[in-house]
Amino acid sequence: MSQPPKNLQTIESHIMNLQSLHPNASGELTGLLNDITFASKVISREVNKAGLVDILGATGDENVQGEQVQKLDDYANAVFMRCLGTKGQVSIMGSEEMADPYYPDTSNGSGNYVVVFDPLDGSSNIDVNVSVGTIFGIWKKKSRLANIGDVDLLQPGRDLVAAGYVIYGSSTMFVYSAGHGVHGFTLDPSIGEFLLSHEDIKIPFRSCIYSVNEAYEPKWSPEMRDVVRQLKYGRATKTTRQDAPGKGAGMTARYIGSLVSDFHRNLLKGGVYLYPPTMEKAEGKLRLMCEAAPLAYIVENAGGYASDGQQSILEITPRKLHQRVPLYIGSRDDVLWIEKMVSQAADPI
Ligand code: P6P
Questions:
Q1: pLDDT band at residue 50 using 50, 70 and 90 as cut-offs
Q2: Measured from the CA of 213, which atom of ligand 1 is nearest?
Q3: What is the rounded CA–CA span in Å between residue 275 and residue 273?
Q4: CB of 121 sitting under 6 A from ligand 1
């Protein structure tokens, strides 16, 4: 007989405990977070049987990003659309899979919340059985319901009230923060519950891992080439990395090509993920609202930092829903150093 897990706390009870920190809370955010955990269980079931049924491969359509839409992308987006805001809490939904925002019916609720999500990031990896993920951010609307619009949607990450991601890997994990630490829950499929497995996650101050697609090196700026060279050979401004035993002066490289997977590993072990701009993509590839800002909120609540090379990701007010940004995210010491190297090159005086 296996021993019962020491801590049988479900994510629902954890979220309820957080709600008790806010005596005036209406319970709407709690309900919304529970909607998201339910949606991720439904998506997890489908992702984990991919390959067994005809849900692999592309639909033949292109999304607003000009990328091939995978069947599971569509499915995951539909699940989020159907499961979120069941009590009228959500007045605007933005999805990486939809060109325009969606305005749900709020007649039976307050419409207090705005949710932006990437329903299935890294989905091109599904066909080769690599982990993929969901990323979400939750803001509070600023206007009266009658005047809902871009001022409510295009908010900086600094104003997030909660954010999180789900990683569909060797196990399905739900990691979130509502401003009181970062907590990870692992799905026990036998009971259909997310159980607390990583309480109060803190990212190591220094990295021992760097994650970047080095195939683009010829298209980077000279200072970015120097940054990655120093990550390999050891930073000129640092002594040998005592915190990376056996790694000598530099770090080890890990790049899965699935942002949630690379981010999650770096969060737990200490690492820095880089998606620099290139000559073709001056703004980088990753989306500010549905990828960079939610993960920046998570990493800052875990003691890390996220930058676009000039400023904190959380300080950027989006110009548009699908705005892209360069992204450097992970262990605080290394991301601050990268931001210094990049901003000095941009403004050498
Ligand atoms: P590249 C997946 O398409 C994604 O948005 C992230 O999940 C991933 O980190 C990145 O793009 C990979 O991009 O250009 O290295 O293939």
A1: low
A2: 15
A3: 7
A4: yes
